[in-house]
Sequence to fold (99 residues):
Amino acid sequence: MGSGYVGILSVELHFPEAGSLKGKRKFVKSAKAQLQHRFGVAVAEVDHHELWQRSRLTLACVTRDYRESEQLLDQAERYLSGQEYELGQCERRVTTLDE
Fold:
């Protein structure tokens, strides 16, 4: 049985245009759906639930090789940085799955 890799990317997002939690949810819901659809990753909002203009999303992917995980995380980060909201601090990690 072969091993694989798990890539994890955690990002801070700032939504200057959001004037309420409802407004923020629109941005978060869209970002999550786009990440899932474009990159096939699992996404969760993991922090700042009560704040109107901030969110922390964590996404995860499973791949066959290290390079594929790195490329997928790069693409997702690039996508997020090109949106109408602001991309803040990003943390990433790629780990191996042992047999």
In short: The first helix runs from residue 21 to 39. Helices lie at 21-39, 66-81.
